[in-house]
Amino acid sequence: MTTPNIADKVTVLSAQNKNADNTVSTPNPFNSACSKTDMHDKFKELEEKYNRLYDVYNQLREKQTCSNIKIINSEKTITKLTTENKRLSASEKELTEKLRTTEKERIRLFGVNNLLMERRGALYTKIKELEDLLAKRDQTDQTIFLNQPKDTRFYNAKEGLGLTNPQNLKKVNCRQLY
Q1: What span, in angstroms and rounded, lies between the C-alpha atoms of 62 and 68?
Q2: Which end of the chain is more exposed for a tag (fewer CB within 10 A), N or C?
Q3: 174: Cα separation from own chain's centroid
Q4: How far is C-alpha 91 from the geometric centre of its chain's CA atoms?
Q5: What residue spans define the domains of the chain?
Q6: How far apart are CA 123 and CA 49, in angstroms?
Q7: Local confidence pLDDT in tens for the 178 residues of the chain
Q8: Is residue 158 within 8 Å of residue 170, measured between CB atoms?
Q9: 3-class secondary structure for the chain?
Q10: CA distance 126 to 122
Q11: pTM of the predicted model, to two decimals?
């Protein structure tokens, strides 16, 4: 916004110079007294105009150097941002690749887990079938308990096969152990 004002000043000053040149009458070279004062005044006016134009020129030059510095700084920030963008895109590619591999591994492990759960279910059904086979042979929990050999058992298992409570068994004589 300030640059057009300075440019306007330059145009105004140059217009004033043209008007001053047109309005000033050319002095008579034969009249030396009049011409010296006119020349001196004209010289002073021109010197003032030159100083004003030089000041405007210096202001424009300073603003141009400031704008050049800003352009250079912005170019540096652009290069920094582009390198940062490249680095971030490379890390994004790495992360997406890791995400893909972990997703594949998760799917594979999910499949393995399902397979193990199916095997577990199959084993439970097999155990249930075997327990049913034992029950089909007319063996109850009591008979299974009685038929399991243990060193601490002092009861005659054959006598208590029809009883529901194994505590009702008679105590075997120590001489009659198996």
Answers
A1: 10
A2: N
A3: 82
A4: 9
A5: 2-110, 138-178
A6: 108
A7: 445 567 677 777 777 766 655 554 555 555 555 567 788 888 889 999 999 999 999 998 998 998 899 999 999 999 999 999 999 999 999 999 999 999 999 999 999 999 999 999 999 999 888 877 776 665 555 566 666 555 555 555 555 455 555 555 555 555 544 4
A8: no
A9: CHHHHHHHHHHHHHHHHHHHHHHCCCCCCCCHHHHHHHHHHHHHHHHHHHHHHHHHHHHHHHHHHHHHHHHHHHHHHHHHHHHHHHHHHHHHHHHHHHHHHHHHHHHHHHHHHHHHHHHHHHHHHHHHHHHHHHHHCCCCHHHHHHHCCCCCCCECCCCCCCCCCHHHCCECCHHHCC
A10: 6
A11: 0.36
Instruction: Report d(CA 140, CA 16) in Å as an integer.
Output: 127
22: Cβ contacts below 8 Å, ≥ 6 apart:
none
The residue type found at 55 is: D
